[in-house]
Amino acid sequence: MTGARQTVTSADGTPIAYQRDGAGPAVILVGGGLDDGSENAALATELARDFTVYNYSRRGRADSGDTQPYAVQREVEDLAALLDEAGGSAHVFGASTGAALALEAAAADLPVDRLVVYDVPYSVEAEAVARWRAYRARLAESLKQGQIDEALAAFMRLGGASDDDLAGARTAPFWDDLLRLAPTLAYDAAVIGDDGPPPADRLAGIRQATLVLTRSTSDPYMPALPVEFFEAAADAVAKALSHVTRRTIDAPGHAVDAASVAPPVLDFFAG
């Protein structure tokens, strides 16, 4: 059974919406770019068989508030409020840029029990770093000019979308939903940082047992970010951590596939 939507109040007064399901030890799910929590919904259902799962909408998304000015620290405080709501501590799963946010929360000494990060998109190689810097500049300028459509297009081009791909996406039913989320791309960019590589010095302070997951096949919808991109990021993260398990799974793409992701997550959190 699916639980009702609820809200918790973050330190700056921002309401953060979440859905609670299941019973057992607490798990909090942190979504990535252009996700309002929907992408993790199927995973929440799988994990709720053994855990109490909190699947939330990050600030600026769905029913959550968006108090300005934005800062990554505010998102860390959002997660702190959810951890308090969950009983004072919880396991945390983060996907994509949500994985980077989960790492920041653990590095800030929040009461995270065990941590799983999936496909964290740090840029490690020189070419990837250059592309990230160029994307950040395009994104910032587009949002400054109020060109939300172009901001979304810049994000899709980062993944390798062609002009034809963009033309097709702009006529698709989901485009308007993505436009509503597009301003939060600035938040995801801030979580990753200016340069793109993982913040090794901060990550070195994480003491929680951490599972770093990637997949074995590239995502056809993200040709500019092949599996090697995510492998390099995951290896750099794993190198910085003290208590880490590094694992590659058979998953169909970057978006969280519950059937592929749930088993290793369940095993790790149960351990």
What would a concise description of this structure say?
With 271 residues, this protein is an alpha/beta fold. The chain is built from eleven helices and eight strands.
Q: Can you give a write-up of this model?
A:
The chain folds into two domains: 200 residues, 3-Layer(aba) Sandwich (Rossmann fold); 63 residues, no CATH class. An eight-stranded mixed sheet has the order 1-2-4-3-5-6-7-8, with helices on both faces. It contains eleven helices and eight strands. 45% of the residues are buried. The longest helix has 19 residues. By secondary structure, the protein is of the alpha/beta class. It is 43% helix and 18% strand.
Topology:
Layout: E1 5-9, E2 15-22, E3 26-30, H1 41-47, E4 52-56, H2 72-85, E5 90-95, H3 97-107, E6 112-118, H4 126-144, H5 148-158, H6 163-170, H7 175-181, H8 185-192, H9 200-203, E7 210-215, H10 227-240, E8 244-249, H11 258-270
Parallel strand pairs: 3-4, 3-5, 5-6, 6-7, 7-8
Antiparallel strand pairs: 1-2, 2-4
Estimated structural class: alpha/beta
CATH architecture of the largest domain: 3-Layer(aba) Sandwich
The largest β sheet comes out as: 8 strands, mixed
Mean of residue pLDDT values: 97
* Beta-strand share of residues: 15-25%
Sum up the structure in keywords.
single chain; about 270 residues; alpha/beta; Rossmann fold; 2 domains; 11 helices; 8 strands; AB_hydrolase_1; hydrolase activity; AB_hydrolase_fold; Alpha/beta fold hydrolase
